[in-house]
Fold each of these.
Amino acid sequence: MSPRNVQFNQEDIVDAAFQIVKANGWAGFSVQAVGKAIKASTMPIYSHFANSRELEDAVCLKALELLKVRMPVERTGDLWIDLAINYVRFAIEEPFLYRCMWDGRNIELMREMGKDLNKFVSDSLADYPLFAGLSVVQRDMIKYARTFFVQRLADWLNKDSSYISATGIDVDTFIMMTSKALFEGYLLQFEGGEGSSGNRKMDIDQSRLRHSACR
């Protein structure tokens, strides 16, 4: 290997590939394009990656880490709602990265990333006060329902970022109010059926959620 090639480590190569995909998606990606970005031949790339698919996977994983950094950023003061807003914003603001993560080019990797992200969200909400007192099943029902809503909304807005705003509805407010409606709707059903959480009261939790939705 020439001295010129030695200077490029795996992180340099992934960073260059990541920037290409971030700007242009997979359409702009190739091993040759990455080599051009780092001003080298393809030799240092293939010294770290067996093939282009391995480099593609590394780009997806780097995108996932960026998403996990952005998701907890405070926007409303309510972490559960902020996680959803920031996920959807990522789909809008980083359209190519969002697509590269979930386009199914590597189904197994996509599944693993989904599991990783679900664990990240669950760990982030481990001490979330509005879920206190709910059973595991009740908590999961609320979380899954909200996840399905957020995932579908992110997919839509990734393709057309004005899908909601064109109607005059603010996307962040839409997410806050829908999250609130899901939470309160499920809680009413839990309290009214055999799966009731007993003497759990909604007053304090609802006031906090209303406060978050109005900020």
Amino acid sequence: MIKFDIHNKETAPSGSVAALERADDDFGFVSNMVGVLAESPTAINAYLDVVLGIRDNGTLSPQESCFLMLAISSHNGCEYCVQADGEAARKAGLDGTRLEAAANGGEINDDRLNALRKFAFSMVSKHGRVSRSDVQDFIDAGFTRAQLLEVVVVVAAKTISNYTNHLANIELDPQFKLPA
């Protein structure tokens, strides 16, 4: 496996420096994953645009977005992102039952979150070729057509981060490690 550098503002290509500053400003630090993405100005900027767009412009609640990100990362087997997304979900106010359900696929007594996860998993496993009933079940759970597209954007964000982590085998940041 190829070794990737974890870039900072001093080591990153010039086209990635502003993105590293943006990540630091928005998240309070630069994660190892973002540092790896900085190898490519295209990759880091695309990732930040998508993730911050979800956060700043999405109509899914912060809890729903975080639940969805955590569930997709778990579904994709990305240990790094499960920890990082779990921390983001805790900060967004997701309770332990919902965190556990997102991270481990368990059922929860929340029809809306179950529908959100089910639709996202259909999107991922069917490579976007969901059925009419998949879409209708999502809409029937109270979601909108715009939110159908937001799920596509979350899947894209998780594809970038999960695949980057699989490719680079990134060490987990201390900020994401659970207390012993």
